[in-house]
Amino acid sequence: MELVIFALAALGAVAGGVGIIASRSPVRSALSLLLVLGCLAALSLLLAAQFIAALQIIIYAGAIVILFLFVVMLLHARSGETAPNRLGWLTPAGIVLGGLLLAGLLGTVWARDGGGVASVGAEFGTAEAVGQMLFTTFMLPFEAASVLLLVGIIAAVIIGRPEPASPTATGTPRRGVEARKR
Amino acid sequence: MLLALIIAFPLAGWLILGVVGGRLPRRVIGILASGTVALAFVASVAASRHPAVSAGGLTAPLFSWIAAGALTVPAGLLMDRLSSLMALVVTGVGFLIHVYSIGYMADDRSYARYFAYLNLFIASMLLLVLGSNLLVLFVGWELVGLCSYLLIGFWFDRERAAQAGRKAFVVNRIGDAGFLLGILLLATSTGTLELGRIGSLASQMAPGVLTAVTLLLFVGATGKSAQLPLYVWLPDAMEGPTPVSALIHAATMVTAGVYMIARLHPLFLAAPLTLSVVAGVGAATAFFAATVALVQWDLKRVLAYSTISQLGYMFVAMGVVAMPAGMFHLTTHAFFKALLFLAAGSVMHAMGGVIDMRQLGGLAGAMRWTAFGFVIGALALAGIPPFAGFFSKDLILEAAFTSAQHGGSWLVWVAGLATAFVTAVYVTRAAILTFLPPAAHHGHPHEAPPTMRWPMAALAVLSVGGGALGAQAVGAPLLHSLDRFFATAPATESAPAVLLTMIPVAIGALGMVMGVFLYRGRREVTLGAVGRFFERQWYVERVYDAAILAPARALAQFCADVIETRGIDGAVNGVAALVVRAGGTLRRAQTGFVRSYAAAILAGTIVVLGYWLLR
Amino acid sequence: MTVPIGAYLALGALLFVLGIAGVLLRRSALIVFMSIELMLNAVNLTFVAFARQLGRLEGQVAVFFVLVVAAVEVVVGLAIIIAIFRTRATVDLDDVDLLRG
Q1: What phi, psi does B459 have (nearest 5°)?
Q2: Contact yes or no for C7 and A29 at CB 8 A
Q3: Alpha helices in chain C, H assignment, sequence order
Q4: Cα B501–B507–B508 angle (5° rounding)?
Q5: Range with the lowest mean pLDDT among B44-58, B265-279, B488-502, C9-23?
Q6: Distance separating alpha carbons of residues B69 and B442, to the nearest angstrom
Q7: Domain A1-77+96-113: which CATH class?
């Protein structure tokens, strides 16, 4: 039973991953990302991480992917890959490098696998257990994370504001620099 | 405590004048500056009456200055018979010249600055004289050099004065470098610089080292005391105000070299080679400077060369181991040469700054005090009894004679006699050209104000009576005191003393007669080719120009044209060009494409991962 | 436990490399961004797997923090993409090369 679930979820995750990077339309990519996230949530459940699985669904699927879709809509779904690729060498290089990395990682997993799996109780990975740890041992990083979120909100507001319509705004001189360099 | 007070008074005067002097009324400035020096004089008198002064020395430790490894140098003051004499001369003559300056500088713009420098000089000179070890002495030595520089260039808006100040400073640096080397060598070879312990150290040192130390110290003395070959700065120093010439460049600072040798006499006594060098340089300088003085037209320059010449006498005294006589001559010279300079200053004051003797003459009528003072100074300089210079110069010549009898060089004695003759001639010439008619000017000279007259009168009295300090007839109190300090045999006991005394006196008198004969009626005698030779300073300066200045200029030119432009600029430009080229090459790596950066990150990750896996 | 931990790790590695391929090969800023999210999730999976293997919750806590950082990153990153689009009318990463030397 577990094996079947794993196989299905893993297959879904890989298919979603390929979908993200291979699809022409950003909307399809976003939906593929949603598929990956769902599958990973299922895998998390298999690994006794109920709380993480819930977070995965709520935050990633519920918030982040929606944000992606929102931006895609805002930008009229233009992928922008219209000009000819100026980094032609990157395709073979990326494939070779990615292959190397995959080989290294898989080799490591292959070589180092074999450790036993610890037996855990029923409360392992529940929201209560993770929360207990967050609010005791990781209290300070937790608070720091909240500050980070606040900073992120402020940054997004600042960046997202429409630019002031002054001639010294960043846009004009940038183009000037660019023109001169070319 | 008393010793520190001696220095503290003029130092306080300097501080006050330097900080708020510009806002004080002139009257207050003059009184303040003279008053501090007078107080220092009183304190010196009081300190010199302390019984410890005659019994080895009164000391006043101040603080521990240097404590580095084996070398410890406490800063302290020391007053013994030698330094008490010097302190009295410095503060006494210094006070008179301060008073004189009140009148002389009355119309100057920088009144407060002048007196601030002068007070600083007195304080520095006292530090030099009273320092209890060589390093403190050296600090004073450098400080008086600084004051000398500041005061020579006092009228710094005059090109010549500024250049003269620089020249004095640079030439003194040469001597001071030797002096400092000597001090360092002494410190490394003995481990102490305390003046109180120098005496016992001479026997411990290797003869070669001792000779090197004393010769290096003597190099310092030739710089400060304007002896051959470093005399060149003193004539130019006459660009400063005349009271400064009297105080610094005649009476006190330039005698520092003599004082230093007297101070360290145990070392010099143990180095016979150095002693003969000192005597030789002294004699050569004495004769050389006297001949140059003979053909100068600038009255102050005559006196400047005369000072160099008389300092040569003092070094002769040191060289022939007649330290008491040398110090005695130092004292009397301070009196009569200061008097001569003050008289010259009075002439300048009256004539609106004219000092060329060809444009003077006939001043005796209008300036009786000044003329009288100058004549007394001239007689003392010429060594005519009973004026002060006679006693001291005579003692030195006697000592030179005795030294020659005991294996020294007769040349020293002969040079001394020849110098005495030339001295008498040139001082007579100066007196005649300046004061006797016919006048070569159409001005209306006026006698100096009282503040200038009275210091001259006091110095005139000292120039007449100062000889009594060393006259055997009245017991020679100063000589006795110094004899005990230097532990030398009392001089002038030998049989031919009377005859020996007659020779210089006769020569001096002959010189004066000769001078009167030569320059009667203010004739401008040039002495022909010999005169030109003298006037060009025996071509010493020209040799310096050719041997030192020209190569130095060429070297500087080489540095500027080749080393600077090709070497240093080339290196700078080369480095810059290298950076530019390297940047031009490396900038291609910065494609600006995020994806290529990401690829680079990935490659780096793989390398690190590979390292960890294959380790 | 019939599925070995190694299988989860291998899956994580595969997803990670897929994400890298997306970053390297795609030029659309949005898709590159999604690929980065994919890589983060691959790492998350690895964390959870190790947490399970070791029986310790620290791995899951780490995933929590990764989630927080990812959220912030998406917010700021998307804001930047919108700002770029507003000034240059493109989301092609190769058109944004002002840092070119």
Answers
A1: -70, -35
A2: no
A3: 5-25, 29-54, 58-88
A4: 90
A5: B488-502
A6: 70
A7: mainly alpha
CB B316 within 8 A of CB B228: no
Residue B298's SS3 state is: strand
| Cβ neighbourhood burial of A123 (10 Å; 0-12, 13-18, 19+) | exposed
The span from the CA of B332 to the CA of B256, in Å, is 15
Give per-residue burial for A157-180: e unless 16+ CB within 10 Å, then b. eebeeeeeeeeeeeeeeeeeeeee
The angle, 0 to 180 degrees and rounded to 10, between the axes of the packed helices B410-435 and B497-518 is 40
Residue B368 β-bridge partners: none
Rounded to whole angstroms, the Cα distance separating B394 from B400 reads 10
CA-nearest residue to C28 within chain B is B595
pLDDT band at B488 (very low <50, low <70, confident <90, very high): low
Class of domain C5-88: mainly alpha
DSSP one-letter code for B356: B
Per-domain boundaries in chain C: 5-88
Residue C64 structure tokens: 């929590």
Alpha carbon A81 to its chain's center: 21
**Interchain CB distance below 8 Å, C24 and B595:** yes
- Closest alpha carbon to C9 in A109, A116, A46: A109
Long-range contact set of residues B480-484: C-beta below 8 Å, sequence gap at least 24: B481/B54, B481/B81, B481/B85, B482/B81, B482/B82, B482/B85, B482/B323, B482/B324, B482/B327, B482/B328, B483/B324, B484/B54, B484/B81
Residue B611 C-alpha, separation from nearest chain C C-alpha, in angstroms: 18
**What ipTM was predicted for this assembly?**
0.89
Distance (Å, whole) CA B515 – CA B233: 28
Q: Which residue has the higher pLDDT, C51 or A121?
A: C51
Task: Judge: C27–B590 Cβ closer than 8 Å, yes or no.
Answer: no
| Domains of chain A by residue range | 1-77+96-113, 123-159
Burial (0-12, 13-18, 19+ Cβ within 10 Å), B399: buried
Shortest Cα distance from A74 to chain C (angstroms)? 9
Residue count (chain C): 101
Say if residue B495's pLDDT is above 50: no
Pair B430, B355: CB distance under 8 Å: no
Selecting from B586, B592, B602 the residue whose C-beta is nearest the C-beta of C100 gives B592
Residue B227 in tokens = 């002896």
User: Using CA atoms, how far apart are residues B353 and B366, in angstroms rounded to an integer?
Assistant: 16
* Res. A164 pLDDT band, cuts 50 70 90: low
pLDDT digits (tens, 9 = 90+) for B338-394: 999 999 999 988 888 888 888 888 888 888 889 999 999 999 999 888 888 888 888
Residue A142 has pLDDT above 90, yes or no: yes
Tell me the CA end-to-end span of chain A in Å, nearest whole number: 62
Could you give the angle at which helices B323-350 and B256-263 cross, rounded to 10 degrees? 170
